[in-house]
Amino acid sequence: MTVLQVPATAQRATLIGRPFFWIIALVIAVFAAAPTIGNDVELRESLLLAAVYITLASNLNIMLGYCGYINFGSIVFFGLGGYITVYLLNTRGWPLGGALLAAGFAVSALALLFGLGILRLRGAFFALSTIGINEAVQAFAENFEPWGGSAGIYLSTELFQPLGGPARALWIIYYLLVGVMGLSLYLSYAIKNSKFGLGLLAIGQNEDAAGVLGVPTPFYKAIAYSISAFLPAIAGGLYFFKSAFIQPSDAFDLTLSTEAIVIVMLGGQGSIAGPALGAYLYEELRGWLLTSETFANFQLVVAGTLLLAIVLFTPGGLMGWLYGRWPRLRKVLE
Amino acid sequence: MFGVFASIVDGILVGAVYGLAAMGITLIWGVMDVVNLTHGTLIVAGMFALYILTSALGVPIYLTLLPIFVGGFLLGLALYWIAVHRMVGRPPLMSLLSTFSVNLVLIGIGTAVWGTRLFNVAVTLPGVSVERYTFPGTHILAAVLTAAIAGALYLFLYSTRLGKAIRAVANNREAAELVGIPTTRVLSLAFGLGCALACVSGMLIGTMFPFTLLSGDTYQLKSFVVTALGGLGNPTGALLGGISLGLIEGLETPFMPVSWTLVIEFAIFVAVLIAFPSGIFRRRRS
Amino acid sequence: MTALLVVENLTKRFGGLLAVDKLSFDIETHEILGLIGPNGAGKSTVFNLVNGVFAADEGRVVFDGHDVTGMPPYRIAHLGLARTHQIVQPLTAMTVLENCTVGACFGRENLSISRAREAAREAAELVDLADRLSVTAAQLTIAGKKRLELARALSARPTLLLLDEVLAGLNPTEVEHMIGVMRRIRERGVTILIIEHLMQAIMSLSDRIVVLNSGRKLAEGKPAEVANNPAVVEAYLGDPALAAELHGH
Question: How many domains are there within chain A?
């Protein structure tokens, strides 16, 4: 049985008053400060990847951990956000902020539209539809000339000038990504402690019973799906802007969304700290694997074995195990 | 004009094999409410076994059917005990994740050891020529064998004790247990059977088309589309659904570039499920 | 008194089976209406039709003046209808308080979380679950889960409560307790439609009884009238023990 971390009962403190609010703030501060002090570019790059994973996992958690719906194709938000951002920057000359926001809203709107359709499907059918959406969008990108077709789009380095040149731009992009990561964590936090979140959690426990209790299930699910698209889209925009290059096979690579699923389950689905912890652990594991000769090709094998072990033995993931061992932690972590 | 008609007929032949693959999914799902996400990989395993047995061991092509069936069954039993047994009765999310994770492992190992190159099993079989179109012998034989296997499956489910036990467990697991049916054993056998069907359909597809170790996703998708069309837990529906899909593909190929086929099939999948949540060919259960 | 619930010619087929056949009855505000009938008579199906889980093939359901035929369950819940299930449906990983808070949040009054928690506590107290608010639903006994099911439905402060065999599987002491709870609920002004197999209980609780057999209304009236109705006795003759119970032996 999964261990679900739901709002602690006798809460008198507001969201800001609780310890976890400040723990999130601390994490953001550490991410921002650590590479800055000492101008450590290598650390920045590795933390940037971690921030991307945490963003994807936290937002995925809204569907997977709260509602109990597996989104195999969540990468589509990231990739499509990347494409829209890069296209607006490169071809239309938009400023970075505008392009990112436009990407975020456009992808959320599309997610709402598609979500209303595919969220009527239960379990496996929904999960498979999300792959289908990813495939469909990838096929579109490969055939859409203004987006460079299967060759993709190369960004000119001129685009970094408004940000003060390439070196400085990379730092700005990093801070923005840390901001997106922070917003993702706060978003999970706010949702989980809201009435909307309570409804989502009820859907995840027993969707039919939730409906009978008055939870407007079709709308809540669609809204959750749409919200879970917004920040990953912006993250995608930042990521591919930084790479100065985007192509369909990278932007819509299912490996990343698969890893996000493993991360959420590893950390503890339904919790807020879980995806963050899981992302950190997974990135460490992955980094170690890539340096080891024998395991370099076995990335997905390891991910699969890990996921299987979690599902079979500790469905509550790391947070579930921690809460089991030290129940007092519930007062501090969420 | 005849070209389109021929394409449709050919599509139906191939579609029957898709129906066979779908029977694997629908059997498992109908009996234990588990969606087997290793299905695509099992199809590829069947294809790959065909390749190894024929090229490395020189086994005559169609004689590989029986060993692949048995092998698939045994593999299915192993998969059941590893990933599925503890998930029966738990929320469907769990069995999705467990079969998904096993699938990752299998594909990861497979591609690491054998790579992602194209494999092709050359089958020389006389075709049937009508006007300017030749219906490949492999397609015809595959459809015939599919019909035979489907018939055997039907006989098994409706005339043998074990088959009836499987249907009883599918209908009402608790009641079946109360009547003394060893449900766990039945579930594992049903799962093994579903996997065997997947492997055999892979073998038949392997006689018709080239493949890579990553082809599983495509055929898994087709199996799910067939299930959507044919309804769950319904072998006849699976066959009819497969033929329908084959028909649709036959209509597509003369007119559409291949890269859009998958997208169209997904669109059909979603559209059908939204309009007919229980499948178009679902037999009404009272 | 105006009828809180009006069921008119309600019909439902499942394939070839006619589960509910042109059923009509009313429930007046503040009354307790008992729904009885042999197994398979269609009682739970009626519940599912009233609260929107099944779509009726024919007929209407009018609740509190609104035509709710064909509405999804959550909209009917917002109008003030709550139900319990024969096979309990707890939100297993959530605590008793959280389960009830869900009920209170999404029920008739559309409360905020903090207000909902208060309503949840009140409901839990009414069924004597106040001492187990932080227990996870999964850890409750079957009796506890049944109380939770009831408390959760009450948390929504419904005007009409559908109770589906709340007493099944309980021992005599627990049954006594639940009957007391149901009387307290009625005192608070909630109208109740109850399905029950425990004859004595339902006969003593209900103001009126509707008897269902094979999906059709067999009889309707005060408990004593219904118990002496020859057609009703005959329907139960298949189960002599039950027929005897009808007559209070």
Answer: 1
